[in-house]
Specification:
This protein folds into two domains: 2-70 and 220-241, no CATH class; 98-213, Roll (Dipeptide-binding Protein, domain 3). The protein is α/β, with parallel strands linked by helices and 244 residues long. The strands form three sheets. Strands 5-10-6-9-7-8 form a six-stranded mixed β-sheet, with helices on both faces. Helix content is 27%, strand content 28%. The longest helix is centred in the C-terminal third of the chain and has 16 residues, at 168-183.
């Protein structure tokens, strides 16, 4: 089975931070590593051999269409297009994850945190990241948004540094949020140095919840028994692959 991932680190990290790292760590608990190097891991269990390769998602989609891959990520922003494409729509698997894309504040004044929460553009985020408006977390009423926007000039100036914990999907999503806040006059930027807040994929009380998370992948019709958990991990021990 030929699997494309956006990242294939080797050796594997002790504490996975991305979906791909978590997938590899869990798989290699029960599979024997035949060969491992940065960008490619070959693992085997019984008669099933899996070749994990690092392939840029748009390139992976092309290789999947050619029949050169059995599993590949749907490129960011292409879920709806893939589901409408007669050639590959039957191969698209969209999994709703048990997680929420969330801003966790570490040290921010309460007034500023409230304004960030009330002005977060959850609807645009949901349309562009999970590509499903129904996955946006509830937004405050329009009057609450307008009041929060009016409060922005009166807030004490704080440059909000937002770190991102996760893969390219979260980095893209964070850039959308930051751009919308900056358009309103809030000084927010992405920075890993002494961050005031972290953008991550998990559920947490008291955080700024933006949208429910999904993962979308192409899976070949040669593959049976493929299931992705709510944690975003596939149990390959259950997978079978037809020859040819």
């Amino acid at each position: 089975m030929r699997v494309a991932l956006a990242d294939v680190p080797w050796p594997l990290p002790k504490h996975p931070h991305t979906r791909d790292e978590a997938q590899l760590v869990q798989t290699l608990r029960t599979f024997h590593v035949v060969r491992g190097r940065p960008g490619e891991i070959v693992a085997r269990r019984g008669r099933l051999e899996i070749i994990f390769r690092k392939v840029e998602p748009h390139r992976a989609a092309v290789l999947f269409r050619r029949g050169e891959l059995d599993e590949a990520p749907v490129p960011l922003g292409d879920i709806r297009a893939a589901l409408a494409d007669e050639t590959v729509k039957g191969a698209v698997r969209v999994t709703h994850l048990d997680a929420v894309d969330t801003v966790l504040a570490k040290q921010l004044p309460t007034r500023l945190l409230n304004v960030l929460s009330r002005t977060a553009d959850r609807r645009s985020y949901a349309l562009l990241v999970p590509e499903d408006l129904h996955l946006a977390m509830p937004s405050p009423p329009a009057r609450v948004f307008r009041n929060a926007r009016r409060d922005i000039p009166r807030l004490p100036h704080v440059q909000v540094r937002l770190a991102v914990h996760g893969d390219a999907t979260l980095r893209y999503g964070a850039s959308l949020l930051v751009a919308s806040w900056r358009d309103l006059g809030l000084d927010v930027r992405i920075s890993a140095k002494d961050p005031h807040a972290v953008f991550t994929r998990r559920a947490a009380p008291g955080a700024i919840a933006v949208a429910r998370a999904v993962d979308a992948r192409f899976v070949s019709p040669r593959v049976s028994g493929w299931r992705e958990s709510g944690d975003g991990v596939v149990d390959y021990a259950r997978v079978r692959v037809r020859s040819g």
